[in-house]
Each structure stands twice: as C-alpha cells, then as structure tokens.
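Help! Submission page says 'invalid entity' but I think these are all valid:
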Amino acid sequence: SQQGEEDPQALSIQEGENATMNCSYKTSINNLQWYRQNSGRGLVHLILIRSNEREKHSGRLRVTLDTSKKSSSLLITASRAADTASYFCATDGGTSYGKLTFGQGTILTVHP
Amino acid sequence: ETGVTQTPRHLVMGMTNKKSLKCEQHLGHNAMYWYKQSAKKPLELMFVYSLEERVENNSVPSRFSPECPNSSHLFLHLHTLQPEDSALYLCASSRSDGLGYTFGSGTRLTVV
C-alpha cells in the first residue's frame, strides 16, 4: 500500500513566494526524506528528518515532522524558477537495509 | 554526476528483444536498488540487494531479472517485455543501514 501521500498534487506560484508541500504516511518510520526530481531525471536527495526530530533546516528548505499525526511538510522559501520540479517524500520504515516508500509527489511550478 | 551511473539513458526495444540495464556506483555503498517510475504512479521498489544478496523482490514479473555481481554493479536483464513495462527505471545505492540514498539519472525504456 502507498505509504507517503503528498498534498497538493500540483502547486503553481510566482517567483519569490513560499511553497509548502505536505506529506502523510501510514506506518511508523525511522526517518522521512524529501527528494526533488527534474523532468525525466533521477531523484536528488534534499533533506532527511529522523523520527525523533521535529524540524530541520537546510538553506531555503524547512522540513517539519509530526509523528503523532504521521505527517511532514516541506517549505521552500523565496522560491525561484529553478525550483520548478516534482517533490517527493519517502519514508524509511526501518528494515535492516534501506527501503524507501515514496508518495506520488507534488509538481511545483514557479513562474518568473 | 551523482556517483551512480546508469546506462543506457534511453532504450527502445521490441517485445521479443533481450536487453540489459546497467547501474554502477563508486560511493562505497553496500546496498543497491531498482525502482520503476510510471506516469501518474508513485515510484515502485522492484529489487533490493544488500551486501550482494537479494533481500527483496516485490512481486516483479520474471521477465525482469536482476543481477548484482559485486557491490558496485547492478544489472536488470529484460526479456519479452510488454508495452506497459515502458517507464523510467531508476537505480539507487545507499549505505547498508539505508542512509546516503543516491539515485542515478535513470533509463527511459520504451517497449514497442
């Protein structure tokens, strides 16, 4: 069954605005990760937040995690046209090896 | 260049052909993965190799056959595929504890 589900499915904003994407999941996790994918290319790891963390920052990215609600959000501040991409959350359920379960993604379009 | 290299980038094959996808990583990782990304569907985990042993096979049809000869190389052998197998096939590697996930740029496969 699908673990992570992103919301919204698509987001269109103007350059300079903030973009917020949400992710919900169903089972317990070790960590939650966010990835970015430019059209038809591989995924690029953005940030990882562990289950015992509530908030994490990296440059213009801010990720929050609420394990009681089984949800996470990714905030991109001061967006740029180059941020246009699909964004995915992925959960690591804690197998002895890495096994990520991905959501369907949010397509972000930033207009110049 | 992410450190995970996939070849070829694009592949068009007939339903009776046999072809192979190749993935190579030089990150010192011990786990490697094949994912399938179809339009409008979440990334689907196909196979996981940890320390060169297949540890997961997510009900993938036998027309897909993985091979992991060493911790740096992963292959996906394809034969008698169907048009619905057309997709972006992504390889990834990670540390054996699942951290440091890194994706390749993918192989865009079209079955005609």
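Support: the input was valid. A stray whitespace character was the problem, and the output above is from the cleaned input. Chain A touches chain B at residues 2, 4, 30, 33, 35, 40-45, 48, 88, 90, 92, 95-105 (CB under 8 Å).
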